[in-house]
Design a protein that fits this description.
Distance between the termini: 43 Å
Structural class: mainly alpha
Largest sheet: none
Radius of gyration: 17 Å
Number of strands: 0
């Protein structure tokens, strides 16, 4: 009984963004990329939304494990490798992302990664 009370207090203390992390099952960076990809609000089906979440996870995992080496921003070659990885992974986005939207999202995600890492 006490456990439930503490959980309720803890949950009430979480701000809206923290609650979104839990609800969407994404960490902070994944949620940021998901937001970049889906805002302004796109009409995604539940299946497409799940697909975009998976792409956000895969993108960050790949970048962190393979592309974001120390001082990656300083060399044109490593910046190009990051851009290419983003483009390749975002190419798996649902068909609703036409060429123009895809290009915009690639640039926005790259800008986020550049600023964040």
């Amino acid at each position: 009984m006490m456990h439930n009370r503490y959980c309720a207090v803890f949950e009430n203390d979480l701000n809206e963004e923290e609650q979104r992390h839990i609800r969407e099952e994404l960490d902070e960076d994944e949620l940021a990329v998901f937001d970049i990809l889906t805002r302004p609000e796109l009409s995604l089906s539940k299946k497409e939304e799940k697909q975009v979440k998976g792409i956000a996870r895969q993108l960050l995992k790949t970048l962190k494990e393979e592309k974001l080496v120390l001082d990656w921003r300083k060399k044109q070659q490593t910046r190009a490798a990051v851009k290419l990885a983003i483009a390749e992974i975002l190419d798996k986005l649902p068909a609703l992302f036409d060429k123009l939207l895809y290009d915009q999202k690639c640039q926005l995600v790259y800008n986020y990664v550049y600023e964040r890492y």
